Write the structure tokens for this entry.
Amino acid sequence: MLDFTPYTAVLLDLDGTLCEANEILPGAAEVVERLRREGRTFAVLSNSTDSPNQVSRRLARMGIQMEPAKIFTAAAAAADFVLHRQPSRPRVFNLATEGIQELLDGKVDWVKRGDEACDAVVAGAPANVYAADDRQRIALQLLRNGGAALVGTCADRVYPSPRGLEFGSGAFTNFLAYAANLQPTFCGKPERIFFEELCNHLHVQPSGCILIGDNLEADIMGARAMGMVTVLTLSGITREQDLSGLPTARMPHRVIHDLTDL
């Protein structure tokens, strides 16, 4: 059993580590219960464009009670970035999700037209109600007018859905960036912004954290770049053969089959 005593915080990835779609993965409930029993500081993290409240409700439907304060998503990181970037009340156009709307509502002035002043356009995956065709055209106008930053919730190229692979937030954000001729800022894993904001929320230093995740790029390499100890679980996207030939600096510190190994 892995001893968590040396670490000030344990970070658990969500999809592919704790759950898959709407099913809890083996060992997930037991690890969460162990962390609570031992009084550990821990958090669940995800590149989801949902708010922590939405993720909390999703986990509850699967039988894991998790307070929103212990959940940190790419949407939450993007909302923090927008609020911290602008000293006064930001003017924002939501091209992302209901999660962004919930996180920023009452804290920003929502932009509705392409001829308004705008500080930030927040983009998510295109398969969202806030990213309809007419809203995409408004976002492009705002970005080309100048002055608005393009903020991508995360840089994911694709994501799986019941319909198959969908265009991810990263693909959609880069599509907009190319059309507007500007550089976007991404806020999800593996960006430093994500892990810095997460550690600020937990009041811990990155070097004291251990991260358990299933994605080599988003989880392991992102966390290693911050000086965190990493554990790769093979219950999600990464397969054992994906580790072949990886340089030591990009390898996880430990590999497990799934959370039952903990």
